[in-house]
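Dear colleagues,

As part of the handover before I leave the project, I'm documenting each prediction I ran so the next person doesn't have to rerun anything. This entry is a single chain, and its sequence is reproduced below.
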Amino acid sequence: MRPLLAVTATLLLHFTAMGADSTKTWRVGFLGQYVKGQDISQSTLGVLLEVPVGKRAALDYHFSLGKAEDGTLFYHLPAFTRIGVAGMNYFGQFDSKFSNAMGLIFLLTALIPEGISYRVDAGQHVQVIPYLHPLGQDYFHSADTEDRVRNTLEAGTRFSFMVGKKFYFAPHIGMKMYYFDQSLGVEGGISCGLRLHR
């Protein structure tokens, strides 16, 4: 298990170093969102993390808790995060080179983002940010019914307004779809948080 912890620390340092260029800006913020459609009605609160991979592109990670119209609670996260954590938990029970290697593979799997975004300057303090999140997942839990997992696709645009050098707020509008039954809804909300220059 110690090699897995060492690799985890190394990867975190690597991802931090990816943003060492001063033109790259990390963003972390709180996100509130409402989705409404014929078969979807839900509200969520969570965290949005944007990790830069260039001057304009970013990898997006979205984690939130939500409530559907029928009162069912769910959490949303990148699909591969759930798979990666489950794999690390399983192989973490064993102490062998094979289990450490599998733990590393699942750690890398957990780091796969939900999607991407691209920042376009629309003024000195305004950015238009189209996003595409094809790898989301909602995990529904109810005491009355069996737990279920639904894979999601989200796409839309954030309109980001800078407040000083460190803060931003960004209303967004887009769409959310569940893949298998193709339930579709319009999503809207706002995120606000910190801009971290590395």
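Confidence is low (pLDDT under 50) at residues 1-22. The first strand starts at residue 25 and ends at 37.

All the best with the project,
I.
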